[in-house]
Design goal:
four-stranded mixed β-sheet, six-stranded mixed β-sheet, about 20% strand, 15 strands, about 40% helix, alpha+beta
Protein backbone atom coordinates (compact mmCIF):
# COMPACT_ATOMS: atom_id res chain seq x y z
CA UNK A 1 0.00 0.00 0.00
CA UNK A 2 1.34 3.44 -0.97
CA UNK A 3 2.06 5.64 2.04
CA UNK A 4 0.41 9.06 1.91
CA UNK A 5 2.91 11.93 1.60
CA UNK A 6 2.12 15.18 3.42
CA UNK A 7 3.76 18.55 3.64
CA UNK A 8 4.51 19.99 7.07
CA UNK A 9 1.84 22.63 6.38
CA UNK A 10 -0.73 19.90 5.71
CA UNK A 11 0.19 18.05 8.92
CA UNK A 12 -0.20 21.21 10.98
CA UNK A 13 -3.58 21.90 9.40
CA UNK A 14 -4.82 18.38 10.11
CA UNK A 15 -3.92 18.84 13.76
CA UNK A 16 -5.67 22.21 13.89
CA UNK A 17 -8.73 20.69 12.19
CA UNK A 18 -8.89 18.01 14.88
CA UNK A 19 -8.65 20.72 17.55
CA UNK A 20 -11.27 23.02 16.03
CA UNK A 21 -8.73 25.75 15.21
CA UNK A 22 -8.41 25.48 11.44
CA UNK A 23 -11.00 28.05 10.43
CA UNK A 24 -12.85 30.93 12.03
CA UNK A 25 -16.30 29.98 13.38
CA UNK A 26 -18.98 30.37 10.72
CA UNK A 27 -21.80 31.26 13.09
CA UNK A 28 -22.39 32.81 16.48
CA UNK A 29 -21.64 30.44 19.35
CA UNK A 30 -24.43 28.66 21.23
CA UNK A 31 -24.33 27.26 24.80
CA UNK A 32 -24.23 23.68 23.50
CA UNK A 33 -20.99 24.46 21.65
CA UNK A 34 -19.07 24.53 24.95
CA UNK A 35 -19.54 20.85 25.74
CA UNK A 36 -19.06 19.97 22.07
CA UNK A 37 -15.71 21.78 21.95
CA UNK A 38 -14.54 20.06 25.13
CA UNK A 39 -15.58 16.67 23.74
CA UNK A 40 -13.59 17.43 20.60
CA UNK A 41 -10.49 18.26 22.68
CA UNK A 42 -11.33 15.41 25.12
CA UNK A 43 -10.55 17.67 28.07
CA UNK A 44 -10.10 21.32 29.00
CA UNK A 45 -7.30 22.23 31.38
CA UNK A 46 -8.14 24.52 34.29
CA UNK A 47 -5.89 27.31 35.52
CA UNK A 48 -6.82 30.16 37.84
CA UNK A 49 -4.42 32.89 36.63
CA UNK A 50 -6.68 35.84 35.87
CA UNK A 51 -4.36 38.49 34.39
CA UNK A 52 -6.39 38.17 31.19
CA UNK A 53 -9.34 35.82 30.77
CA UNK A 54 -8.83 32.59 32.73
CA UNK A 55 -7.37 29.83 30.61
CA UNK A 56 -10.41 27.54 30.15
CA UNK A 57 -12.51 30.45 28.91
CA UNK A 58 -9.70 31.57 26.60
CA UNK A 59 -9.27 28.09 25.10
CA UNK A 60 -12.99 28.05 24.28
CA UNK A 61 -12.93 31.60 22.89
CA UNK A 62 -10.09 30.66 20.53
CA UNK A 63 -12.38 28.02 19.03
CA UNK A 64 -15.89 29.45 19.41
CA UNK A 65 -15.42 33.19 19.12
CA UNK A 66 -17.62 35.39 21.29
CA UNK A 67 -19.36 33.25 23.89
CA UNK A 68 -20.61 33.80 27.41
CA UNK A 69 -18.17 32.48 30.04
CA UNK A 70 -21.22 31.53 32.11
CA UNK A 71 -21.98 28.83 29.56
CA UNK A 72 -18.99 26.84 30.82
CA UNK A 73 -20.11 27.26 34.42
CA UNK A 74 -23.61 26.19 33.38
CA UNK A 75 -22.37 23.07 31.59
CA UNK A 76 -20.63 22.01 34.80
CA UNK A 77 -23.60 22.87 37.02
CA UNK A 78 -26.15 21.03 34.87
CA UNK A 79 -24.06 17.87 34.70
CA UNK A 80 -22.78 17.96 31.12
CA UNK A 81 -19.22 18.16 32.43
CA UNK A 82 -17.22 16.85 35.36
CA UNK A 83 -13.95 17.99 36.85
CA UNK A 84 -10.97 15.86 37.81
CA UNK A 85 -7.25 15.31 37.35
CA UNK A 86 -6.70 14.34 33.69
CA UNK A 87 -3.88 16.19 31.94
CA UNK A 88 -3.87 18.33 35.07
CA UNK A 89 -7.04 19.65 36.70
CA UNK A 90 -9.51 19.52 33.80
CA UNK A 91 -13.11 19.69 32.72
CA UNK A 92 -14.17 16.48 30.96
CA UNK A 93 -17.39 15.19 29.38
CA UNK A 94 -19.51 13.49 32.03
CA UNK A 95 -19.41 10.22 30.09
CA UNK A 96 -15.67 10.02 30.77
CA UNK A 97 -16.21 9.56 34.50
CA UNK A 98 -15.61 5.87 33.79
CA UNK A 99 -12.13 6.67 32.47
CA UNK A 100 -10.90 8.40 35.60
CA UNK A 101 -12.80 6.48 38.30
CA UNK A 102 -9.90 4.05 38.84
CA UNK A 103 -7.69 7.04 39.73
CA UNK A 104 -10.18 8.10 42.40
CA UNK A 105 -10.18 4.63 43.92
CA UNK A 106 -6.37 4.61 44.22
CA UNK A 107 -5.70 8.17 45.39
CA UNK A 108 -2.41 7.18 47.01
CA UNK A 109 -1.04 6.89 43.45
CA UNK A 110 -1.86 10.52 42.69
CA UNK A 111 1.31 12.02 44.19
CA UNK A 112 1.07 15.46 45.78
CA UNK A 113 -2.65 15.64 45.00
CA UNK A 114 -3.43 13.26 47.86
CA UNK A 115 -1.75 12.98 51.28
CA UNK A 116 -2.70 9.74 53.02
CA UNK A 117 -1.09 10.80 56.28
CA UNK A 118 -3.24 13.96 56.42
CA UNK A 119 -6.43 12.06 55.66
CA UNK A 120 -5.64 9.47 58.34
CA UNK A 121 -4.64 12.02 60.96
CA UNK A 122 -7.84 14.03 60.43
CA UNK A 123 -10.21 11.13 59.78
CA UNK A 124 -12.77 12.22 62.39
CA UNK A 125 -12.89 15.83 61.17
CA UNK A 126 -13.26 14.56 57.60
CA UNK A 127 -16.10 12.25 58.64
CA UNK A 128 -17.86 15.23 60.23
CA UNK A 129 -17.30 17.32 57.09
CA UNK A 130 -18.89 14.62 54.93
CA UNK A 131 -21.82 14.44 57.36
CA UNK A 132 -22.18 18.23 57.14
CA UNK A 133 -22.32 18.11 53.33
CA UNK A 134 -24.82 15.24 53.46
CA UNK A 135 -27.11 17.27 55.71
CA UNK A 136 -26.59 20.80 54.40
CA UNK A 137 -25.70 20.38 50.75
CA UNK A 138 -22.73 21.54 48.61
CA UNK A 139 -19.92 23.59 50.15
CA UNK A 140 -16.87 25.64 49.17
CA UNK A 141 -13.70 25.84 51.20
CA UNK A 142 -14.53 29.57 51.45
CA UNK A 143 -17.54 28.61 53.59
CA UNK A 144 -15.13 27.82 56.44
CA UNK A 145 -12.97 30.28 58.34
CA UNK A 146 -9.22 29.84 58.64
CA UNK A 147 -8.25 29.15 62.27
CA UNK A 148 -5.39 31.62 61.94
CA UNK A 149 -6.08 34.96 60.29
CA UNK A 150 -3.54 36.09 57.73
CA UNK A 151 -2.29 32.63 56.84
CA UNK A 152 -1.21 32.27 53.23
CA UNK A 153 0.33 29.80 50.82
CA UNK A 154 -0.73 26.26 50.06
CA UNK A 155 1.16 24.96 53.08
CA UNK A 156 -1.12 27.06 55.28
CA UNK A 157 -4.42 26.14 53.63
CA UNK A 158 -7.29 25.98 56.09
CA UNK A 159 -7.91 22.40 57.25
CA UNK A 160 -11.25 22.14 55.43
CA UNK A 161 -9.60 23.08 52.12
CA UNK A 162 -7.09 20.26 52.57
CA UNK A 163 -9.89 17.89 53.57
CA UNK A 164 -11.96 18.79 50.51
CA UNK A 165 -8.99 18.51 48.13
CA UNK A 166 -8.22 15.06 49.53
CA UNK A 167 -11.84 13.95 49.29
CA UNK A 168 -12.01 15.27 45.73
CA UNK A 169 -8.92 13.33 44.66
CA UNK A 170 -10.30 10.21 46.37
CA UNK A 171 -13.60 10.61 44.54
CA UNK A 172 -15.72 10.95 47.67
CA UNK A 173 -16.83 14.42 46.63
CA UNK A 174 -17.04 15.99 43.18
CA UNK A 175 -17.20 19.52 41.86
CA UNK A 176 -20.81 20.31 41.11
CA UNK A 177 -20.26 23.95 40.14
CA UNK A 178 -18.08 27.02 40.61
CA UNK A 179 -18.81 30.35 42.25
CA UNK A 180 -16.38 33.11 41.34
CA UNK A 181 -14.34 30.23 39.95
CA UNK A 182 -14.15 28.59 43.40
CA UNK A 183 -15.04 24.91 43.49
CA UNK A 184 -18.38 23.87 44.93
CA UNK A 185 -18.24 20.31 46.28
CA UNK A 186 -21.01 17.76 46.76
CA UNK A 187 -21.08 14.07 47.58
CA UNK A 188 -20.19 11.91 44.59
CA UNK A 189 -23.25 9.69 44.89
CA UNK A 190 -25.43 12.81 44.52
CA UNK A 191 -23.51 14.03 41.47
CA UNK A 192 -23.44 10.54 39.88
CA UNK A 193 -26.57 8.91 41.32
CA UNK A 194 -26.72 6.13 38.73
CA UNK A 195 -23.07 5.10 39.02
CA UNK A 196 -22.25 1.81 40.76
CA UNK A 197 -18.61 0.70 40.99
CA UNK A 198 -19.69 -2.93 41.16
CA UNK A 199 -21.54 -2.62 37.84
CA UNK A 200 -19.78 0.13 35.92
CA UNK A 201 -16.12 0.22 36.94
CA UNK A 202 -13.70 0.00 33.99
CA UNK A 203 -10.28 -1.55 34.58
CA UNK A 204 -7.27 0.74 34.53
CA UNK A 205 -5.95 -0.98 31.40
CA UNK A 206 -9.22 -0.51 29.50
CA UNK A 207 -9.63 3.07 30.74
CA UNK A 208 -6.13 3.95 29.59
CA UNK A 209 -6.75 2.31 26.20
CA UNK A 210 -9.79 4.55 25.78
CA UNK A 211 -7.79 7.58 26.94
CA UNK A 212 -5.20 6.86 24.25
CA UNK A 213 -8.01 6.56 21.69
CA UNK A 214 -9.33 9.96 22.79
CA UNK A 215 -5.82 11.40 22.57
CA UNK A 216 -5.35 10.07 19.03
CA UNK A 217 -8.67 11.53 17.90
CA UNK A 218 -8.07 14.91 19.53
CA UNK A 219 -4.52 15.21 18.19
CA UNK A 220 -5.65 14.04 14.76
CA UNK A 221 -2.11 13.49 13.50
CA UNK A 222 0.63 12.37 15.86
CA UNK A 223 3.71 10.41 16.72
CA UNK A 224 2.97 7.54 19.15
CA UNK A 225 5.15 9.15 21.82
CA UNK A 226 2.84 12.18 21.87
CA UNK A 227 -0.18 10.19 23.04
CA UNK A 228 0.60 9.51 26.70
CA UNK A 229 1.06 13.15 27.75
CA UNK A 230 -2.52 14.07 26.85
CA UNK A 231 -3.85 12.33 30.00
CA UNK A 232 -0.44 12.16 31.72
CA UNK A 233 -0.23 8.38 31.34
CA UNK A 234 2.92 6.46 32.23
CA UNK A 235 4.58 3.09 31.56
CA UNK A 236 2.44 2.18 28.58
CA UNK A 237 3.16 -0.39 25.87
CA UNK A 238 2.21 1.71 22.86
CA UNK A 239 3.63 -0.43 20.07
CA UNK A 240 1.07 -3.31 20.30
CA UNK A 241 -1.79 -0.81 20.51
CA UNK A 242 -0.61 1.15 17.47
CA UNK A 243 -0.17 -2.07 15.49
CA UNK A 244 -3.73 -3.09 16.37
CA UNK A 245 -4.98 0.36 15.30
CA UNK A 246 -3.17 0.03 11.98
CA UNK A 247 -4.70 -3.40 11.34
CA UNK A 248 -8.21 -2.19 12.18
CA UNK A 249 -7.89 1.01 10.16
CA UNK A 250 -8.27 3.17 13.25
CA UNK A 251 -5.15 5.03 12.13
CA UNK A 252 -3.15 5.14 8.91
CA UNK A 253 0.55 5.82 8.33
CA UNK A 254 1.65 8.98 6.56
CA UNK A 255 5.04 10.48 5.72
CA UNK A 256 5.43 14.14 6.66
CA UNK A 257 8.14 16.42 5.30
CA UNK A 258 10.82 17.07 7.94
CA UNK A 259 9.01 14.93 10.55
CA UNK A 260 9.01 11.47 8.96
CA UNK A 261 6.41 8.82 9.77
CA UNK A 262 3.28 9.91 11.61
CA UNK A 263 -0.19 8.50 12.17
CA UNK A 264 -3.54 10.02 11.22
CA UNK A 265 -6.73 9.14 13.11
CA UNK A 266 -9.53 7.76 10.94
CA UNK A 267 -11.88 10.61 11.92
CA UNK A 268 -9.74 12.91 9.75
CA UNK A 269 -9.97 10.80 6.60
CA UNK A 270 -12.45 13.24 4.97
CA UNK A 271 -9.82 15.99 5.31
CA UNK A 272 -6.80 13.83 4.49
CA UNK A 273 -7.26 13.88 0.70
CA UNK A 274 -7.45 17.67 0.74
CA UNK A 275 -4.40 17.79 2.99
CA UNK A 276 -2.49 15.51 0.63
CA UNK A 277 -3.18 17.97 -2.20
CA UNK A 278 -2.31 20.94 0.04
CA UNK A 279 -5.92 22.14 -0.27
CA UNK A 280 -6.76 21.98 3.44
CA UNK A 281 -6.48 25.67 4.17
CA UNK A 282 -6.12 27.36 7.53
CA UNK A 283 -7.91 30.70 7.77
CA UNK A 284 -8.02 31.24 11.52
CA UNK A 285 -6.09 33.86 13.47
CA UNK A 286 -6.38 33.56 17.25
CA UNK A 287 -4.81 34.24 20.61
CA UNK A 288 -4.13 30.94 22.37
CA UNK A 289 -3.88 30.10 26.04
CA UNK A 290 -0.57 28.83 27.46
CA UNK A 291 -2.65 25.79 28.52
CA UNK A 292 -4.15 25.14 25.08
CA UNK A 293 -3.76 21.50 23.97
CA UNK A 294 -1.90 22.73 20.88
CA UNK A 295 1.01 24.00 23.00
CA UNK A 296 0.82 22.33 26.42
CA UNK A 297 3.20 19.58 25.25
CA UNK A 298 6.21 21.82 24.64
CA UNK A 299 8.19 19.15 22.73
CA UNK A 300 5.23 18.46 20.43
CA UNK A 301 4.72 22.18 19.75
CA UNK A 302 8.39 22.54 18.87
CA UNK A 303 8.43 19.51 16.57
CA UNK A 304 5.16 20.25 14.77
CA UNK A 305 5.16 24.07 14.75
CA UNK A 306 8.83 24.93 15.30
CA UNK A 307 7.58 26.91 18.29
CA UNK A 308 9.83 26.87 21.34
CA UNK A 309 7.63 27.83 24.25
CA UNK A 310 7.63 27.89 28.01
CA UNK A 311 5.36 29.51 30.55
CA UNK A 312 7.34 32.04 32.55
CA UNK A 313 4.87 33.10 35.25
CA UNK A 314 6.67 30.76 37.69
CA UNK A 315 10.07 32.14 36.67
CA UNK A 316 11.59 35.05 38.66
CA UNK A 317 10.83 38.32 36.88
CA UNK A 318 14.48 39.10 36.18
CA UNK A 319 14.91 35.77 34.38
CA UNK A 320 11.87 36.03 32.11
CA UNK A 321 12.54 36.39 28.40
CA UNK A 322 9.06 37.26 27.12
CA UNK A 323 6.87 38.08 30.13
CA UNK A 324 4.57 36.82 32.87
CA UNK A 325 1.60 35.26 31.03
CA UNK A 326 2.68 34.86 27.43
CA UNK A 327 0.01 33.93 24.89
CA UNK A 328 0.87 32.18 21.60
CA UNK A 329 -0.43 33.81 18.43
CA UNK A 330 -1.87 31.63 15.66
CA UNK A 331 -2.23 32.86 12.09
CA UNK A 332 -3.36 30.66 9.20
CA UNK A 333 -1.86 27.44 10.54
CA UNK A 334 1.38 28.93 11.87
CA UNK A 335 2.34 29.94 15.40
CA UNK A 336 3.71 33.30 14.32
CA UNK A 337 4.46 34.93 17.65
CA UNK A 338 3.59 35.49 21.28
CA UNK A 339 2.46 38.34 23.50
CA UNK A 340 2.47 39.26 27.16
CA UNK A 341 -0.81 40.96 28.05
CA UNK A 342 -2.82 42.26 30.98
CA UNK A 343 -6.50 43.15 31.20
CA UNK A 344 -7.25 46.31 33.20
CA UNK A 345 -10.91 45.63 33.86
CA UNK A 346 -11.85 48.84 35.66
CA UNK A 347 -10.41 50.94 32.84
CA UNK A 348 -11.73 48.70 30.07
CA UNK A 349 -8.21 48.41 28.65
CA UNK A 350 -6.33 45.41 27.30
CA UNK A 351 -2.63 46.21 27.58
CA UNK A 352 -0.31 44.29 25.27
CA UNK A 353 2.88 44.73 27.26
CA UNK A 354 5.00 43.18 24.54
CA UNK A 355 4.47 41.28 21.30
CA UNK A 356 7.17 39.29 19.53
CA UNK A 357 7.10 37.59 16.14
CA UNK A 358 8.97 34.35 15.52
CA UNK A 359 12.22 34.42 13.59
CA UNK A 360 11.59 34.40 9.86
CA UNK A 361 7.96 35.59 10.07
CA UNK A 362 7.34 38.33 7.50
CA UNK A 363 4.93 41.15 8.27
CA UNK A 364 2.55 40.84 5.34
CA UNK A 365 -0.82 42.53 4.86
CA UNK A 366 -2.44 39.17 5.65
CA UNK A 367 -0.52 38.82 8.92
CA UNK A 368 -1.33 42.37 9.99
CA UNK A 369 -5.03 41.98 9.21
CA UNK A 370 -5.25 38.57 10.88
CA UNK A 371 -3.51 39.61 14.08
CA UNK A 372 -5.32 42.94 14.25
CA UNK A 373 -8.66 41.14 13.99
CA UNK A 374 -7.66 38.47 16.52
CA UNK A 375 -6.40 41.02 19.06
CA UNK A 376 -9.45 43.24 18.63
CA UNK A 377 -11.83 40.30 19.06
CA UNK A 378 -9.85 39.09 22.07
CA UNK A 379 -10.03 42.52 23.72
CA UNK A 380 -13.68 43.16 22.86
CA UNK A 381 -14.73 39.76 24.24
CA UNK A 382 -13.25 40.83 27.59
CA UNK A 383 -15.29 44.06 27.41
CA UNK A 384 -12.25 46.19 26.61
CA UNK A 385 -12.89 49.37 24.66
CA UNK A 386 -9.22 50.25 24.35
CA UNK A 387 -6.20 48.22 23.21
CA UNK A 388 -2.73 49.59 23.99
CA UNK A 389 0.72 48.42 22.97
CA UNK A 390 4.10 48.49 24.64
CA UNK A 391 6.93 46.64 22.88
CA UNK A 392 6.11 45.85 19.23
CA UNK A 393 8.09 44.81 16.14
CA UNK A 394 8.99 47.95 14.20
CA UNK A 395 6.76 47.15 11.21
CA UNK A 396 3.73 46.62 13.44
CA UNK A 397 4.50 49.77 15.42
CA UNK A 398 4.56 51.78 12.21
CA UNK A 399 1.12 50.50 11.28
CA UNK A 400 -0.58 50.14 14.66
CA UNK A 401 0.98 52.94 16.68
CA UNK A 402 0.36 52.74 20.43
CA UNK A 403 -3.11 51.20 20.17
CA UNK A 404 -6.67 51.87 19.18
CA UNK A 405 -10.15 52.24 20.57
CA UNK A 406 -12.99 49.82 19.85
CA UNK A 407 -16.72 49.84 20.07
CA UNK A 408 -18.11 47.51 22.76
CA UNK A 409 -19.01 43.98 21.67
CA UNK A 410 -22.46 43.77 20.17
Amino acid sequence: MTVVQLSLRAARNLHLAAQGLLQKPRRRARPSDVADAISRMSLLQIDTINIVARSPYLVLFSRLGHFEPGWLDGALANGELIEYWAHEACFLPKKDFSLIRHRMLSPENMGWKYRPEWMKEHAEDIRQLLAYIAENGPVRSADFEHPRKGAGGWWEWKPQKKHLEGLFTAGEVMVTGRRNFQRVYDLTHRVMPHWDDALHLVSQAEAERQMLENSARSLGIFRPEWLADYYRLKNLALKPLVEAWLLSGNVIRVQVDKLGEMLVHHSLLPQLEKAQQNQLNATHSAVLSPFDPVVWDRRRAEALFNFSYRLECYTPAEKRRYGYFVLPLLHKGVLVGRMDAKMHRKQGELEVISLYLEEGIKVTDSLQAGLRGALSDFARWQSATQLTFGVLPAELRESWGTGWEMAPAG
